[in-house]
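Appendix B. Raw example, untouched.
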Amino acid sequence: MPGFAAHLNFLTGSRDDASDRDPNVLEDWTRAASDFKASGSSKDVHDDIPPDVDETEWDSVVDIYQNGGTFGEHKSPLLSRLLDHPSASSLLEPLNILLSSERPNDAVSEELIEMLGFEAIELVMDVLSDRRTISQETSAYLSRSSSQQTGAAAHGSLDSEAARRRMEETLRANAARPLFSGTAEDMPEVLPHVYTSASMTQGNVLSTFGTKYMLPLGTTRVYQEDYEEVTIPPATAVAPRATERLISVSELDPLAKGSFPGYTSLNRIQSIVYPTAYRSNENMLVCAPTGAGKTDVAMLSILRVLDQHRSTSDSGVPIAGTIKRDDFKVIYVAPMKALASEIVRKLGKRLHWLSIRVAELTGDMQMTKSEIAETQIIVTTPEKWDVVTRKPTGEGELASKVKLLIIDEVHLLNDERGAVIETIVARTLRQVESSQSVIRIVGLSATLPNYIDVSEFLSVNRHTGLFYFDSSFRPVPLEQHFIGVKGKPGSPQSRKNLDKVTYEKVAELVQEGHQVMVFVHARKETVKTAMALKEAAMTEGLLDEFSCEEHPSFQLFRRDISTSRNKEMKELFDNGFGIHHAGMLRSDRNMMERMFEARAIKVLCCTATLAWGVNLPAHAVIIKGTQVYDSAKGAFTDLSVLDVLQVFGRAGRPGLETSGVGYICTTDDKLTHYLDAVTSQNPIESRFIAGLIDALNAEISLGTVATVHDAVQWIGYTYLYVRMRKNPFQYGMAREAVAEDPHLGAKRSQLVLEAAKRLVEARMIAFDRDAGTFTITDLGRIAAKFYIRCTSIEIFNKEFRPKMTEADVLGMLSMSTEFDQIQVRENEVKELEQMMETIPCTVKDGTHTNKGKVNILLQGYISNYRPEDFALVSDQAYAAQNGGRIARALLEIAITRKWANASAVLMGMSKAIEKRLWPFDQPLKQFQLKADIYYNLERFADDYTVGELAAMSAQELGELVRLNERHGTAIRDAAKQFPTVRITYDLRPLGSDVLKIAVKVTRMFNWSSKIHGSVEPFWLWIEDNDSTTILQLSHLVFRQSTTSLDVDFVISIPNGLPPPSVTIRFVSDQWMGAEDEVQIPLDTLVMPTSADSHTTRLDIPYLPLSTLKDPLLQDVYGRQANSFNAVQSQIFWSLVRTRLHSLVCAPAGCGKSLMGQIVCWQTLEDAPSSDAWCLIIVPRRSISTELLAELRPVAKLKAIPVDLLTTDAKLTQPSRKTIRVVTAANLLHMLSNLKHAESHRIFSQLRLVLCENLELLDPAYELCISTLLHATHSLPARYVGLSTSLNDPTDLAAWLDVDPMALHSFRPRDRDQALSVSMHTFTIPQSAALFKAMAKPAHSAIRGSPGEQAIVFVPSRGQCRSIALDLITQCALEMETARGYLPDHILPEQLDPFLSRIQDINLVDFVTRGLGFFYDSLTKSDRVLILEMYAEGIINVLLVPHDSCWTLPVRAATVVVMSTQYVHISRNGEERQLRDYDLEELVKMQGRAVRHHGAGGHFHLFCQAEVKDTFSRFLHDGLPLESKLLETGELRGWYDSQKSQGKIRTTQDAVDALSYTFLARRLQSNPVYYDATSGSRSEVLSRLVDQLNGDA
């Protein structure tokens, strides 16, 4: 050593240098001691030492180590070196056993290296060379040590030898003691598939804080004047194991063999992983160097999926014909778009023979449903797959079919984008567990140090699925050079040194006869670097060394290159240099690649795109500089490790050379970073915390996380969780935290609560702290859908206003944190200022802020301005790509907030960015017309609307734009294809303060599939008088077959006083300028008057059944209840004990139908004549079936027949007391054929007409009652009407001539039974995504009544199964069981008798999980069986289509209505239109939650946000009831029939007949609804008769 001070400096140097220090420091100390003694300087030191101490033994403290604790004994130098080992005391005995064994040296050498460490390999070699001697010395030493320790212990010796021995033991014990624990850790487990030549297997050689690994053995560090160079030699090859062999392709089965064309055998890595990859479904992590064949490992796992999805067909069928392509999807996640494209090309080519389609899904690319269906392998990026799996439908439906997820370059977990990889893996793992599906995960990675952690994260079994291959497995061994140039980064000196060292290395390699690829990071830099190298070589007089003129094909290549227009490329070629970058012509790039491959170019200066694209290897690669401009960040960033590994992967030419060299030239401050990263010194850590808030919001939006417990569990699937337990310091935790809480429940809860707090503050979620539940808000859902950060939402919350201009919107959009990376550079300001002068909107922030820059770039993009500066071009593309997405998100936010002005402006701005067209631009620019047509249109026809242009002839248009008729034809065709509509409306008041606006939108443009595709989406909304608030809105689509669409908007008219006007606005979702608006004046609107005719429910005692004074009825009905309920008791007297015409309007389930039946029995009982009869009219056949089932048991006991009158029955006078049940349509048919003379005789003994379900009054029902009223107006027939609660029953009661004393109109809330009503609103359009979003709250509603049954109403039969699967998934997520909703007390064997009777085998999987279906198309036996299992409590959840609510005979504690819209399909099947449920249907569904016995019911209504108020109002106040006679042709048919039969001869006859209709009364009360004018009843009906006669 040079001196003591230098040695101290050496010992106390920075931790970063620790890996490079000489490991044999003790030898330096020994030499220093010898020099000290030789100089004679030690004399004075020993003067005071007592004479009884041997002076020679105290030369140095080092002697304590070297002498092994004994004094005066001779030991060989080799034994001393062994004793110097830090773990000598514990290793000596097993070492002696190993050395004294009979095993050969080759067999024990590996174990010796494992014991002593790879750095002691020289010691191992020396020991093995003199094995017998060292074995004997070790045995003798152990014997002496044993006897001395025994003697010392026995006598407590205090002599110098014992003291020194104790000192030695203490020092060694201290040295061996772990830093943080009082106990030594277990030896790391040996894993079967870890192949490495290093001693630090399993990643156990860490620095003090577990953050750094040692550099490989043989690493050298050289300091030059201008730079520092660290050279890492190629890794020593790992010897093949006894069990290894290369697998020949001929051994593979036909499927695999055909997919490895041109291969004779798999390489070593592929052969090792083959049994796991192709013969099992194990999750895998394969860590191997770049170029080692990892893509083929992925291919093997893909082939495994194909093999598992083959039909067992005859041997004659080709393999491609046996693959079930629709049953699976494979997702390959690649980190870069360039790599994704390469993977698509490779896999597509290899699997083409199997007809497997491979497609790329990256960036803004979308895939249609048909494309998804046709594609088996989808290659995507982590971000895109995150977006896709956030969507429950469309692209998101991919996730349900995925069988294999391949994640390439998993080591990017350590990168900024690592959080996304954690997100998608955690989502996949949770999907596997919740849905019990099988998704195999295969991770591919470069060599990384803590591969065990990554395998744990990927749920890989480390003993079967983890494969680690160190850098020695590269196809060509690589020598790596890391050069750190001196000088301040970015300074002229630093750049000069970089140029100098680059030339030195290039020249050195070229002189050795090698080709070199120099990688730079900008297109211009390729030429600049090549020129600089050429000039330097010329200066040094070495230019001839670079020349390739002696190449046999030089002249041929020179002739080829002369055809290029690239001046620099031609100039450089003559001196042996080439250039290559993405900005060159494809032909020039191909030429460069061909010449370099043919060795006609010695130095190729290129960008990293070459490393990712073409496989063009060279002996040496040099990365010149590591600063790369990142347009996503708007700044220069460090070259990614992924790029470095990819470039280094191009070093060495497999099959042609036995070695390769890779240089990376960076600044000295970045040297350690790249050294650590490329050589895998640093364990990769999680970056998930940075993305936790947005990831949590996405999971809550998706419905996979609904509680704090769910979120804590979800974090348990991340790499963050794995690393927090291994390296808690990194994540702000004390080491004790892991010991105290091994599963880190508290830390995970803390992370969740902190993230939830931010989301709540941003109004993205609602968080119930008491219940620990999360609910997504519209803001949160929109942020997840459009990939908007929480920080951006926080800005929008402050800046977003109901009224904004285009400039305001652009200013706010530019504040989004997605643009934070875009920075203003001084050299760009001038061009930005020039751009700002040409753009239309004012930029408040100017050119000196990033917000201003983004704003300018966006406006420039819309205006089709292309910047000259290359960095600005990248920035503009980034701003436009993100700006369009953010504008769409802001549009949805404005719509959910019902902001009319902001929505209209944002609709225009989002289309402006997408179309690159301003709202004031000529709309026909969106068509492919010639430039001169555009120019002349703007010049001469700018004041014409598209509609006006479409109405003109081709000749007129040609003349208008100063062009010819052919140009006019092109303009006319475009104008006729431009989306335009005609909007008409009708006003329909539904009450004194509710107005329905029936809108008809008629398509007025010519459809072109090429231009319009399959659908044209648009928005239609009603906005208030000052265009501030959207009152109602709808998102609709035109199809080619659509001619018109009908939309009903229901708005509130406070206090019955309408506003001056409202506006209907039509806006295309895709076409700029395709807009229309219609103003609806309301100042003359006459609303119907309010009549408060409701009955107050009285608090009276319940009447006992004995009040009936009919023992038989008392006995029958007494089996259900002992008394009447409150409503029944209140109406009993007027209904049962009088003959007054009556009307009972009461909520569903209150027992009014029972009272109607009692009235029938009592009427017949009291009737004096023996042939008296009652007529019960029902609106539907299903109601008559239910009614007959209730009447016949009593009828049998009373011996009174109950007849159902069918279509072919004839209306006659019965011969005895009878009850007749008939549907309204059948009765109208009978009455129409009944002669006037017969009617009096037949109806003379009709004592009662009971009208059931009057809320379902349709034209047939109204006409049959009107005819009956007309026929019986002079007869003693009594009319009793039953209806659900109505908001105004006055006219209905008057129509039936009901006495005010007998009018009982109860509100919906007046029922006896408790019924809670909950309304859940959604803003997602009707789609599978909506039902995915509804699944979680539906499941929560079902679970809200433990032990009780539930009915779930869904829009259609086809959605029953998909919704059932979603509910089962939610159940599995919460309960972690596969039983679903099957009650715990039901054993599997109890199901067998029922399952054996099921005819539709598809029901079995659902029934075994406690779910059933009920709809008409099920076989009758299956319907009965389902109801039987429901009654037995086996089926807990019954799914029912909305139209089956009328036939469903059961009730439940919980009723959930999932959506209030359904798709109506026209008879020809071409028209599909979204319609709302009828209010009567909703009331019927609500009635299924009303139980006559037991606890209260729960009714959950899931609906669109805009209809909530309407439904809430009518469910609370009662249904509106209007006549429907004028809506169909039935009135016309009835009128013509009456005229033809002579029943109506004059206008007065017609007026008299119509005066008995419900319509006659409503025409007076609510004339606007029927487009009538006010007047007396006779006047109104006369006008109606005139209309009927006129239409005839």
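End of appendix B.
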